[in-house]
Request: fold
Amino acid sequence: MKLAERISRIKPSPTLAITAKANALRAEGHDVIGFGAGEPDFDTPANIKKAAIKAIEAGFTKYTPVGGTDELKDAIIGKLERENHLSYRRSEIVVSCGAKHTLYNLAQVIFEEGDEVVIPAPYWVSYIDIVALSGAKPVVIETSQREGFKLQAQQLAKAINGRTKAFIINSPSNPAGISYSRQELEPLATVLVEKDLLVISDDIYEKIIYDGEEFCSLATLQTEIKKKLIVVNGLSKAYAMTGWRIGYAAGPEEIVAAVTKLQSQSTSNPTSIAQKAAVEALNGPQESVVAMVEEFKKRRNVIVAALNEIPGVKCMLPQGAFYVFPDFSAFYGRSYAGKVVTNSTELTAYLLEVAKIAVVPGVEFGQDNHLRLSYATSLENIEKGVARIKDAVMKLS
Ligand code: PMP
Ligand code: GLU
Reply:
């Protein structure tokens, strides 16, 4: 059958594919340790689940307004005001079925053939495909571990031309866990305002940040920038709500109205019950978030130390999110049982086959020298898993 050309522009999400593969091997009885999934291993906090149960019992099970209920929009407005010192009106907020859906909607209403969208690497896998599906061209700027994976203003300025429509930033980031400080964002903001670009700021890991580092939203830096900036956020990561599918955008009314129109002809509203749960997540007690971040921090310290003990591996200490992005390129060119491992995809396949360890190849995030490991798993799994990785890579000669 001949499918539409647009679907051939994208590949299945590799992060989700690795997780599915690890689960399938587990179902066959293999003892697989998964560092693939980018989702908190904690349960959704009880107060949030109770709010959803109450919503079902009260019959809150019908369509809601397409872009989300006023109650949820107000909870989002309250959160942005309280935590980020950003003020928005209801007409500047739209709720979608997860932040991935929010990003997809934005790309569909903003980008088209002939546009370029600047994305620093390493990037979250789906940015490239979401942009490609819209017809626009993703323009990737390399950053290196040596420079802490941070984009410099001159690099950004150099990548911008007459076709450049937008810039996507993600801090704290997936996969490197970097977090831009206010000072580091200032020069980027100056370039963005000067070049009059649209900015998508994916703040989904905002609350998962360590060592007293403070989250800074690009939107707060200069009044000019906010006029052309869309904040993207969601509840999946901070509240362990990946399955509930609630994400949102806050930004210029014209863009929000266009996203709402697109949603009215595609998904309609996000699940009514999940919206009630989201209101509780944003307005209710926040202790569970603090506890999760504490636990992630312990795991981060253990996994970074263990990885750096493998001779040849270089792993930076991330300041946020729950991923590490170590350089494993020292093992490329080595072989085991007659098979040479030459890149991150082959090393990932080797680790799954020989060590029963699931990781995501760095090439999917734009950097082939690296692997991505999510440490949203128990300390026991981290210790056992990294020991297995070490054994496996030391067998390569
Ligand atoms: N942005 C980034 C950087 C992510 O890692 C994810 C992970 N899924 C998302 C957006 C989308 O999250 P969700 O659709 O679950 O809200
Ligand atoms: N964002 C997560 C990850 O990078 C979840 C999977 C996905 O949505 O792609 O692993």
